[in-house]
Amino acid sequence: MDDPRTNSQRLEGNTLAILDFSGIREARDIHDDRLSFLEAVRAVSLASISPSPPTWKMFDAILQILRDGLSLELAVASFQLLTDLDKRYPRVYVRESDNLGTNSGGAGELVVNKEAWSPFTVRSGNSHFEASGICRDSKSLLDSVSFSFLVEEIAVGRHSAIKTVQNMLLFQYLVRALEADFLPRHTVYKETLNWVFLRESLLSQLVASRKMNYKSLVHNCMSVVSTRFFHEAKICHTDLKDQESISGDLPQSCNVGLPFAFPEIQRKACDAVQKILILIMELDVIRKEAEKLGLTSRSDSFRATILDTILDELTYNKDQLSPFLEVFEDPKWKLEIILLYFGKYYSRPSTRTRRSNSSPNDETFQGILNCFSNPTTTGGILRKMASEVACLLLAQAFKCYLSLQRDQKNAAFVTEKIGGSTLPEICNSLVTAFKNLRKLDHDLELTSFEKQALTTAAALASMKS
Amino acid sequence: MSDPLDFEAEDLLLNFPPAPTKRKKVTDLDDLLGDYYSKQREIDSIAHKKSKSSKRYSSDDEDDKNEKGNETKLSEIADECEKQINQIFAENEIALWGLKIFGQQKSLPSFGFIELENCKLLQPFRENQLDSDLLSDSGQGAGETFLEGLLMNGWLSQLALISGFVEASIASWTFYQVLYSSNVELQLSACDFWCNILSKNEAVQPSIVLEWIPSYRELKDALDVYGYLSDTSQNAALNSISSSQVPGSEGPPVNISSWIKLLSACFQIRKFHSIFSVSEAEEVLIVIIRLFLSRQLQGISFILTDCMQSILSFFTEDEWAVSCEKVAHDIAYSVPKDLNSLRIVECISGTSNRSKHFRGRMAIYMLGILFEKEVFDGMGILKSLGSVKLKDKDTDFFTLYIYLVLSENWILSDDLGDERSDILSMWTKFLRNCSGNISSTDWRLYASKVRSKASYLLQSTISER
To answer: Which of A155, A458, B120, B360 could disulfide-pair with B413, CB 3.0 to 4.6 Å?
Structure first.
């Protein structure tokens, strides 16, 4: 019996030998070899009765295939393999404490597997990459620069269909990796209030990196979200039919599935973009909390919160407001954005100074609706905000409210952000608000989304009363 | 006897055809291939002795002749090599995996929506006492276009979830949109609507009352309309279809992704609405596995994988014990034993015990057919495998490759019971034969693939012990 280390080295050499291209004749051979390599890793690390994790070099090779594989088949297979491997061998997870009986809080313990491979190389003083003493110079790994470059490529979308698909799959995988690293830390933080856990998260290191242009990352993410439909039309009609965009050395059948895969993968990628925005928002919340508790230090470099960045973007680029809110799905954060947006234009007369930081955002949806409850106050708001924008925001906020109020889990959040009103009350207020807006602006044309909001509100009000 | 001199070794090299795609893999296999090389060395030394003895008796004249003879011999060999190479390149076109799973699409079935005009959900929309001028231009009131808008913007799900009830007309109408609408956004929204609603009913208590639920019949009819071919025998070669393909007429519509997702959702709600009987579930499982063979769907294989997972978990333990064998048997009989059969085995990629087991059963059923043995006769199958002649002139290495991969999958995911050690030792012996007895200079199709695959498997089998 050998020791496991030699064993895994032998496994590594043996598996990587499949990828050895020396003397290879054609693109198809390379393609076949890559597929056999992926299949071999799957067999050893997942399908086997006694599976063992791939080594770092093997992981690097899989990621490399995802980054520059020649075909849709390779892209999908490597993506799927990486995803499955991450599920099987998590880098970070919460271990439930053993003494369940004594501790009713059930605080789990955060387990970080420092030996585990990661698709990122993030430079950081006490990062475990350096601590492990293993040189990570594989060019397939991503740092903050290549990550933001990837987002930019997706946002601009000037590549061939197959390259775009690869980029979107890669991005989706990376966001999953960031999320899988973040969520357990987040859970444990909630119990222990130990900021270090989150400071050391991949996400935090990634966005804190000085090399990354954080603003342009957010900008690109937002433009992916708000141009989803336009993008789709552009690619489908030109690229998918364009045979030259597909690697000429391979049989056409290797990429014949693009028209089916494209809309699916694009939807998933758009979800991933929203996911990363939300993750950064969650990180910001904790960071603020940690700042209040005095847990942060100078090593946590300063960065504007993502909500502020998004709001700036939406304020200066008004055309983006409607498409962004239409696609951005998370009701909780969408409501937050809308309330903050209103807050920018309308603040109730109060004695609060600008500096007071205690409750920067105490607007509620009901509070906003109340402002539209009579023509006078409505007119006050319309002096600062166009009636079209007001309608859009109200309709979107109403939809967020509907999604949120169903779930008991959100009860606290709903009370805090909506106010104590019941469903019919909210519905009626919305109808009144729209009527008042109409009274002040006779030319107001409602979009179909707003009409649907209005009729839904009317229907619900009569249904529940 | 002293070693042959350097220049003599060079001479000898000339007599071999140029070394082809020799892979570096062998460097790792010294211990394993030791015996192979020692044999080779014996042969070599005999050859050297011969060449020496022939030289010993040659005079200068004869030397000249010999040289000339060698030259002509060399050019002959070179010609021969070239011929072989050309032949190999011609033969090299082993068809990629892929079957024609979809033929011509059929015309859409007529679908009478159940009184969509009078549905209760839209009642309040008609009766609402809204300011008519707010909604002035929505002339059609509560027609189908209006409903489409509600669906696409997510209001319909909100209404259904809040009221906890979906009436028959709405349910069947949205279902029809999923299966047949050519408006991609509408179709995707309808799919989201259904998946959303069905997922709410996975819990202990169904939270939504569905007045109408889809039946197996509807899903099957849709497949029919998409042009699904349930019989593989009439299959044309893949390459010929892809070239003559007219977009839109051949192959499934894009709705197929939604069809798969919907199916997957339907399988997760066994508790409340049993949409499928066990035999229907088996049938659907076969369909899903066959869809993996469609090149057009290769980019959405992750949706297929998810769907297969939810079908697998639909069965109870007892049902699965029977159904697994049945499905594996049926598939094994219907699929051609070429790269398609390998694709089938590899697509069962889940990491659950059921998938692993299923994968192994699928492989052994295929082996059973290939060797005309019963599937419980593992030893018999391995014996047949061991009796394949490796040194024959007409050894079919492609078929051997299929045997090899199928056996690998069977042995990897089956605990093999009492016969385990016997089977493993026979397997190792077979692998040793393949990696040792197939010459690295064998240029025949798939010979090198068999050889390197066997070396790889041998290596990993040994390191596993």
So the answer is: B360
B295/A253 touch (CB, cutoff 8 Å), yes or no? yes
Report the alpha-carbon distance of residue A46 to residue A56 in Å, rounded: 16
What is the pLDDT at residue A22?
62
pLDDT, chain A, mean = 81
Q: What is the pTM of this model?
A: 0.83
What's the 3-state SS for chain B?
A: CCCCCHHHHHHHHHHCCCCCCCCHHHHHHHHHHHHHHHHHHHHHHHHHHHHHHHHHCCCHHHHHHHHHHHHHHHHHHHHHHHHHHHHHHHHCCCCCCCCCCECECCCCCCCCCCCHHHCCCCHHHHHCCCCCCCCCCCCCCCCHHHHHHHHHCCHHHHHHHHHCEECHHHHHHHHHHHHHCCCHHHHHHHHHHHHHHHHHCCCCCCCCEECCCCCHHHHHHHHHHCCECCCCCCCCCHHHHHHCCCCCCECCCCHHHHHHHHHHHHHCCCCCCCCCCHHHHHHHHHHHHHHCCCHHHHHHHHHHHHHHHHHHCCCCHHHHHHHHHHHHHHHHHHCCCCHHHHHHHHHCCCCCHHHHHHHHHHHHHHHHHHHCCCCCCHHHHHHHHHCCCCCCCCCCHHHHHHHHHHHHHHHHHCCCHHHHHHHHHHHHHHHHHHHHHCCCCCCCCCHHHHHHHHHHHHHHHHHHC
pLDDT bracket for residue A418 (50, 70, 90): confident
Segment B57-66 shows an average pLDDT of 55
pLDDT tens, position by position, B306-316 = 999 999 999 99
A18–B130 CB contact, under 8 Å: no
Residues of A whose CB is below 8 A from B125: 455, 458-459
Q: How far is B455 from chain A (nearest CA, A)?
A: 9
Mutation choice for B interface testing from A407, A452, A460 by most B CBs within 10 A: A452
Contacts of B43 (CB under 8 A, 6+ apart): none
pLDDT of residue A337: 94
Quote the pLDDT of residue A143: 85
**DSSP per-residue string spanning B73-101:** HHHHHHHHHHHHHHHHHHHT-PPPS----
Which residues 83-112 on chain B approach chain A with CB closer than 8 angstroms? 92, 96, 98
Residue A171 reports pLDDT greater than 50 = yes
Delimit the domains of chain B by residue range. Answer: 103-275
Q: Using CB atoms, which residue from A14, A88, A452 is nearest to B150?
A: A452
Angle between helices B420-437 and B30-56 (to 10 degrees): 30
B238 contact A CB<8A: yes
Does residue A169 surpass a pLDDT of 90? Answer: yes
pLDDT tens for A41-56 read 998 888 877 788 999 9
Q: Which residue of B has its CA nearest to A165?
A: B299
Percentage above 90 pLDDT, chain B: 31
Distance from CA of B215 to the nearest CA of A (A): 26
Per-residue pLDDT for A216 more than 60? yes
Closest among A43, A86, A82, A14 to B413, alpha carbons compared: A43
Chain B from 113 to 132: CB within 8 A of any A CB: 121, 124-125, 127-131
For residues B10 and B151, the model is more confident at B151
Q: Which residues of B touch A11 (CB under 8 A)?
A: 460, 463
- In the block, tokens 């088949």 appear at A73
Question: Which is more confident, A407 or A186?
Answer: A186
If one compares B324 and A416, the residue with the highest pLDDT of the two is: B324
Chain A interface, best mutation among B208, B300, B362, by max A CB count within 10 A = B300
Q: What is the distance between the alpha carbons of residues A424 and A418, in angstroms, rounded to a whole number? A: 13
Do A62 and A41 form a contact (C-beta atoms < 8 A)?
A: yes
